[in-house]
Amino acid sequence: xxxxxxxxxxxxxxxxxxxxxxxxxxxxxxxxxxxxxxxxxxxxxxxxxxxxxxxxxxxxxxxxxxxxxxxxxxxxxxxxxxxxxxxxxxxxxxxxxxxxxxxxxxxxxxxxxxxxxxxxxxxxxxxxxxxxxxxxxxxxxxxxxxxxxxxxxxxxxxxxxxxxxxxxxxxxxxxxxxxxxxxxxxxxxxxxxxxxxxxxxxxxxxxxxxxxxxxxxxxxxxxxxxxxxxxxxxxxxxxxxxxxxxxxxxxxxxxxxxxxxxxxxxxxxxxxxxxxxxx
Length: 279
Prior knowledge:
Blueprint: H1 3-6, H2 11-18, H3 22-30, E1 37-38, E2 44-45, H4 48-63, H5 68-75, H6 82-98, H7 103-112, H8 117-124, H9 128-135, H10 142-152, E3 177-178, E4 186-190, E5 199-206, E6 211-216, E7 221-228, E8 231-235, E9 241-243, E10 248-252, E11 257-260, E12 268-275
Helix pairs in contact: 4-6
């Protein structure tokens, strides 16, 4: 597969890269200036090549004030100059795509708590070199992310980069996609667009047979509300909880828990709310 086809972006990510609002891209779609692909979840998705076309649409419509008919003729041409745009976009896109966990936050919270690298290394059970690399932008596994977040008393979502624009209302399909390097078959979108908050509401979709089966604990409390499908949740030594549409489950992060979608054909869709504070 060509690298251009392996990266896809949400409408919010594309809007930030273009310097426009998502509504502008939707208007271009309505005017027939672009053809937008859809994911299996019916979300708009864009490739690097799509971004090259969108850059040209923006140039013609916003910078040069051309009408829709003229733009369609130009976009339908031979694409001269598009390859250069693709090359420049790829560098920007790969950075945007990763939605990196912020290394600054790892350093800040360690210093706020008064720990040295050696302290955290000893108490979490990782090498000083690994921890130092993480604080300087290195990759982190989901398991280590959970361990560190639990140690510092925060949600794993706290360590994602902050939203660019704060807003109370997150419209349908506009939640920021979250990539925590987790298990395949799990997709998540944030339902909050605020820089500072205690609750972390997330829309989750888990494909058949996927989930987080490794029992784990962390700080805070969690709440699940099912929209569709089925989810099997294990808490401590209790019998499994089988959640269906309309069911909800509330538990402490300190409960040993794991979950997965036991269906062999239907995705599970639910809201997961995590609070880093517990009573």
